[in-house]
Amino acid sequence: MDSFSYKLFKGNVFKELVKTLFEDFGYKTAPYGYENQFSTMIKTELSQNNSETARRIRSSPDLVVYDQDTKDINLVEVKMSANEYITINKIEDYREFWDDAIMVAIINDEKDLFYAEKIRDIRTLSHRKYHTSKDDFRRIQDLFPKIKSEGLDLYRKLAVKMLNATSFKPDQEESGDQEQSRSSD
Q1: How far is CA 37 from CA 31, 57, 109, in A?
Q2: Which of 139, 119, 136 is nearest to 128 (CA)?
Q3: pLDDT 10s digits, 84-139
Q4: Using CB atoms within 10 A of its CB, is residue 169 exposed (0-12), middle (13-18) or buried (19+)?
Q5: Assigned CATH topology for domain 3-177
Q6: Which residues fall within 8 angstroms of residue 175, CB to CB, at 6 or more apart?
Q7: Comparing C-alpha atoms, which of 30, 25, 38 is closest to residue 73?
Q8: What is the rounded distance in angstroms from the CA atom of residue 177 to the CA atom of residue 168?
């Protein structure tokens, strides 16, 4: 599996977790992002194109989240980090094309793990290259009030397991396997 495919796989795992979380708390969801709309061949081509249209497509949010009670509809971009901080590489593209969307971040900070913020309100960083849950995001239930803190425990446990399971890089894992097989010869 190449690096691009692995990133898509990993993103899909966490997107499904967040999608299920929303649905379990009474929100309606639907896939939205380019990962769902295009074939692998087109995605590979788009990843190498830096036109405005390609950037807009690549940065399209992952989900549509709808609250039937309030009639609120939101586009949601899902990000994750196994660290206590998160690097958002395309924040300028998100702001340019999707500033009214909400970013949901799964950040392994041993507190809430699930955070959210309107993309327009995520600050631009000048002196450091990462965002933290404390400085840049609110708890997910602050933006999606149907989500109750007491109901998040199962999702926190799942998120930690998933962060641990997806924390290796394919190249490192493969080279480790090769070294192990050489040492057992």
Answers
A1: 9, 10, 32
A2: 136
A3: 888 887 788 888 999 999 999 999 887 789 999 999 998 776 666 788 888 889 99
A4: exposed
A5: Trna Endonuclease; Chain: A, domain 1 (3.40.1350)
A6: none
A7: 30
A8: 12
